Amino acid sequence: MLCACSSGEQFKFEEPPHSPESLATRDFSASGLSSRTGEWEPKFDDTQVEEAESTLKDALSLNYEEARALLGRLEYQRGNFDAALQVFQGIDIKGLTPRMIKAIAERTKQRKLRPKADMVVPNVMSLHSVSLLLEAILLKSRSLEELGQCIEAAKECRIILDTVESALPNGMPEGIGEGCKLQEMFHKALELFPSLWIKAGFLDEAVTAYRRALVKPWNLEPRKLAAVEKDLAMILLYGGVEVSLPSQLQVWGKTAPKSSAEEAILLLLILMSKVAIREIDWDAEIMDHLTFALSVTGMFELLADHVEQILPGIYGRAERWYFLALCYSAAGHDGVALNLLRKACGSSEANHRPHFPSFLFGAKLCSLDPHHAHEGIKFSREVIVIAKQQNEHFLSQGHKFLGICYGAAARISVLDSERSIFQRESLDSLNCAAVNGSDDLEAIVSLGLENAIQRNLDAAYNNIMMYSDMTVGSSRGWQLLALIISAQQRFKDAETIVDFALDDSGGMDQLELLRLKAVLQISQQQPKEAIETYRILLALIQAKKELLLQDKNIDQEQAFRHEVCSTFQGRTLTSLV
Known about the structure:
Structural class: mainly alpha
Order of helices and strands: EEHHHHHHHHHHHHHHHHHHHHHHHHH
Mean pLDDT: 82
CATH architecture of the domain at 45-111 and 123-210: Alpha Horseshoe
Region (Disordered): 1-44
Largest sheet: 2 strands, antiparallel
Number of helices: 25
InterPro entries: NPG1-like, TPR-like_helical_dom_sf
Protein name: Protein NPGR1 isoform C
Number of strands: 2
CATH class of the domain at 45-111 and 123-210: Mainly Alpha
Helix content: 55-70%
Organism: Glycine soja (Wild soybean)
Strand order of the largest sheet: 1-2
C-alpha cells in the first residue's frame, strides 16, 4: 500500500495508478524498466538504475498532486467551492511551475521534431499531467471567483498565462491541442483573466489582459479571437480609462494609436474587415460600436466607406441609403446625402413599404437650403401622409418642415400671387406644428421668424417671448428678441437686451451678440460706440485664435475660423434692424 501525505491529509492507494497517462507508469517504462516485477534488462548499469529510481520517486510525488487535482475537480463540479479551494490549495504549484515550464518546452519541441513518435522524455512531465495541473489552477481561480475573491482569482489565473508564455515565448505551436488539453486550458484562462479584473473593478488591468491575449499567436479560433477584440474595443470605448500602449507594442511608430478611442477604432476596423472576407459572421454589435466610435470622433466619411463595404442582404436598400445619407450629411455633404435620399424615396422603392425616416430626413435637409424648398414641400407632404397612418407623433415635425419650406419658397418666388400663397401656407403649417408639438422649440422659433419676415411683429414678439420663457437664459432667444424689438425701431431697448445677453453668454454666442450690438449702435447714429464695440469683437477673435494656436490644434482652429466667418455672414433677420 502506498501512502502520500501533505498538509495533514492522507491519500491511500491499494496499488499505484496504472492509467496510461500516469507519469509513474510512463516514465518508469521510459527508463527501460518493465512494469511487471522481476523483468530487468541486463543492459542497464548502476547509473541508469539510480536515474530510474529518481524518476519513480518524482512520478509518485506528482501523482499525489494529480490526485488532488482530480478530487478538486470533483468538488468543483458538485458546487462545493470551499471544499474545492481547500483541495487545490494543497497543490504545490510554486514548486511544480519550473517543471511544468520545462515539460511544455521539451514536449512541444519533441512534437515538432517527431510528430508521430512516442513522446517519452526521461525526467520530464507529460503534457497530460501539465494539462491536469493547469486545469486545477483554472478551477481554483473559478472557485475564488464564485466565492467573490476576484482579485485572488485573477492572480491564480495569471499563473497559467505566465507558465505557458514562459515555455512558449513565441506563441502556441500548431497541433499542440491534439492528445491533451493544454491549449484548451490556456485558452480558457485567456478568456477568464480579463473578465476577473473587470469584476474586480480594475479596468486598466483588464485592458492589459486583453492586449496580452492579442499580442501573440495563441491559436485562438477566429470566433474567439474576434470576441476578445470586440470586448477590448468596448472597454476602451466605454470604460473611461486611458491605458497607453507599452513601447514594445507600438510597432507602427508615429501611426500607433495615441488614445483608447483610436485603439478601439482600429480593433473595430479589423473586425469589419474580417466580416467583409467572411472570416467571421456578421455581428450587428460591431457595426453599432464602430458607428458610435467614428461618430464621436467626427470621422463620418470613413464610416460611410465601411457602410458601403457591408455585404448585400444585411441592410435593405432604403435602409443602407438612409444610413449613408446620415454619414454624408454629418460630414457636411448635404448634396450627396440628398441624392441618396432621393434613391431611398424614389420610384425604385415604389413597390416597397415607404421608408419613413428617409422622407423625414429629406424634408429636414431641404428645409435647410432654400434652393431645395420645392422638393422639401414634396418630402414634407409625404411625411404628413405617412405619419397620419402609422406615426402620428411625427405630424408636428412634418408640418414644421412644410412651413419652413413654404417660407423659403416664398422668398425665392418671382410671382406675387405665388409668394402670397406660399406665405399663407407657411404660417398655417407652422401654427399647426406649434399647436400639435407644444414642446417643440424649433417650431415655435420658426413661427416667430416667419412672422417677423412677413412683418407680423406683434405675433413674432409673442412667439419669441414664449421661446425665451421655455429656454431661460438662451442666447439665441435674447438675440431673436433684440432683432424683433429693433424691427419695431426700439433700438435702445434692443441694445439693452443685448447687454443682458452678453453677461450670460460666452464663446461664439458672445461674438454674434457683439456684432449685433455694433449694428444697433450704428442704427442709433453712434459710430464711435460702434467702432469701440467692433474693436472689442476683433480683440476677442484674436485672443481665441492665439489660444488655439498655442494648443496646436489645427482642426479646432479651422472649425473656429469657419464659425467666425459664418458669424459675419448676412442673415435674413439682420435686415430688420
